[in-house]
Write a structure and sequence with these properties.
Number of domains: 1
CATH superfamily: EF-hand
Structural class: mainly alpha
Largest sheet: 2 strands, antiparallel
Number of strands: 2
Helix content: 55-70%
CATH topology: Recoverin, domain 1
Radius of gyration: 11 Å
Shape: globular
Number of helices: 4
Bound molecules: calcium ion
Strand content: 5-15%
Distance between the termini: 6 Å
CATH class: Mainly Alpha
């Protein structure tokens, strides 16, 4: 994934546009993707990318997740 693609995806998930993806935005993203069945697992796995443990995914952490 290029940085531009990552940025576009990040902005899609960051629905309130504060530059950080919180757990609710992450859950909503997976819901939109149709992952209801394993939603909890997907969100948990994604939130493990929270390297500095502030409970939100910033763009740097997001890039590490999607690269
Ligand atoms: Ca946000
Ligand atoms: Ca973080």
């Amino acid at each position: 994934m290029t940085e531009t693609e990552a940025r576009e995806l990040f902005e899609q998930i960051d629905t309130d546009g504060d530059g950080q993806i919180n757990i609710v935005e992450m859950a909503n993203h997976f819901k939109r993707q149709g992952h209801q069945g394993k939603l909890r697992e997907h969100v948990k796995a994604a939130m493990e990318s929270d390297a500095n443990h502030d409970r939100v995914i910033d763009f740097n952490e997001f890039q590490q997740m999607v690269k």
